[in-house]
Amino acid sequence: MFLTGVLKGIQVTIENLFKRALTIRYPHQKIEAAERFRGEHSFDISKCKSCGLCERICPSRAIEMIEIKGKKYPKIDMGKCSFCGLCTEICPFGALKLTKNFSLASGNKKDFIKKPRKLKK
Amino acid sequence: MHETKTYRFPIGPAHPAMANFGIDIEIEGEKVINAKSDPGYLHRGFEKLMEYRTYLQNTILVGRVCVFEPFSYELAYNIAVDKIAGLDVPERGSYIRVMMSELMRISSHLVWMSKMCRATGLDTVLKLAITYRDYILELFEESTGGRVYPVYIRPGGVRWDLPDRFNEHLEKALKKLEDGLLKIDGLMFKNDIFISRTRNVGILKKNTAIKLGATGPVLKACGFKYDIRKDNPYEVYKELDFDVPVYNGCDSYSRSLVRRNEIEESIKIIRQLVKNMPSGNHINKISPFASLPQGEVYSRIEGARGEIGFHIISTGSDMPYRVKIRSPSFTHFIPVLEDILTGSQIADVPVIYWSLDPCADMDR
Lengths: 121, 364
What we know:
Helix content of chain A: 10-25%
Strand order of the largest sheet of chain A: 2-3-5
Oligomer: heterodimer
Order of helices and strands of chain A: HEHEEHEE
Radius of gyration of chain A: 22 Å
Number of strands of chain A: 5
Number of helices of chain B: 13
Largest interface: A-B, 27 and 31 residues
Distance between the termini of chain B: 47 Å
Helix content of chain B: 40-55%
CATH class of chain B: Mainly Alpha
Largest sheet of chain A: 3 strands, antiparallel
Radius of gyration of chain B: 21 Å
CATH topology of chain B: Cytochrome-c3 Hydrogenase, chain B
CATH superfamily of chain B: Cytochrome-c3 Hydrogenase, chain B
Number of domains of chain B: 1
Structural class of chain B: alpha+beta
Largest sheet of chain B: 3 strands, antiparallel
CATH topology of the domain at 33-114 in chain A: Alpha-Beta Plaits
CATH architecture of the domain at 33-114 in chain A: 2-Layer Sandwich
């Protein structure tokens, strides 16, 4: 009674044995992320006018404004960030943006706190 | 000499056959004589967190209630906020909202399929269903920027318009899904092994289903044609033509068939939406820090697991005064599961458990 069920399963397994694999060898091959992908922030310090809207809108409270040479710039805690993109949407000057970079893993806790100058342009 | 007839032991929460909460069962031989749900391991305090965030910030939070269907929670929450703020959603925005929540329903049912098959020992479908889900996740990544947590639905519409070649990619994915469903049919729903493991297992009586507050596929498998999309239509469901699958078996097999046929209906709905998609604006924006007028609303939608509801009280500030979430898994996994498990065989516990489709939304 159950033989047909088992045979059907084996048939699918054999069919797929000769098909191309859907997975890729990740560190060597990469799939390009979509245009709207929300990854690590980029920050252009020359465009920032220190309005502090990004700090106000952040739902995870990951952004804190810190002082550099008398002006305030955002410091982002990547451990708290949920990559929602509200800060980039509200930024009136286009200083904060989200890039396609998703490989943020690190063994050092300090690497997750991105000071304004440490963020890539 | 001390003699024991019954044994009590916990299954889960850290058990390969369980999701994120445990069950304490009492057995006599092979028979379960008493079952008690043991929730609370995934409580994240959403309702309280939402009282300290503005209405826009909460849209990021609500999707996290249930990992497998964030769109349904986003939709239910935003319908409630639209009602409080008195916002009109543009027609195109409404169409995109419905399209995304139907895609999410398919993706959620595919995850359920893979887990149900793990419970019954059909490991081939476990991998197949997850593979087909990935085609949908790719669509989410393209249109929303996030694969699992899209954060796409906003008060007043949707965040962005659909990307340029989205319809082309959508049609390709739907075709693949239809082929995949036929393949899975042979392996799972018409498979003697699956049928014998699920038919007449975990029977939920019709009266009990109503009494204990079952909704969604669990109620439809008991023969009740109750679907909020039909009975209390929201967004553009009034204009759409689709059927509500209903079965009379009341068992795990009927619940499986309801979910399988819901995937087909969802594909039908998406095709209609693509065909009739209007052009124009996709959102009526409100200020991110807007204070909404005083009021109290309840919004409800049909999620993949059942009725999802949001009760929001606004006192006129920029944050809600109180939010109450009604999640389907809460009723399915405390009263309903305890009722079904009593009297069942111990080997059927994982099958019954997964036939109800558990999710993290029971703890919130």
